[in-house]
Amino acid sequence: QNVLLMLIVLKAMYARMVYAFLKKRNFPGYQWLLSEAEWLWRQWH
Question: How do residues 5-44 score in pLDDT, each as one tens digit?
């Protein structure tokens, strides 16, 4: 249970890092990242 929580936290941190990188580059992939973040939010709540 704790391992799963840790994985979700790690994935969220990684996604945020990638999001900041893509946003800086103005890459269209940010749209995909938003859906990924939305999925993470559903996993969390």
Answer: 898 889 888 888 887 877 777 666 667 777 777 888 888 7
Q: What angle do CA 38, 39, 42 make, to 5 degrees?
A: 90
CB atoms within 10 A of CB 14: 10
Whole-prediction pTM value? 0.45
8 A C-beta contact, residue 18 and residue 40:
no
H-helix or E-strand containing 7? Answer: helix 2-25
Q: Give the HSE-up count for residue 19: Cα atoms under 13 Å, Cβ half-sphere.
A: 14
What letter does residue 45 receive in the DSSP assignment? -
To which residue do tokens 């890092």 refer? 17
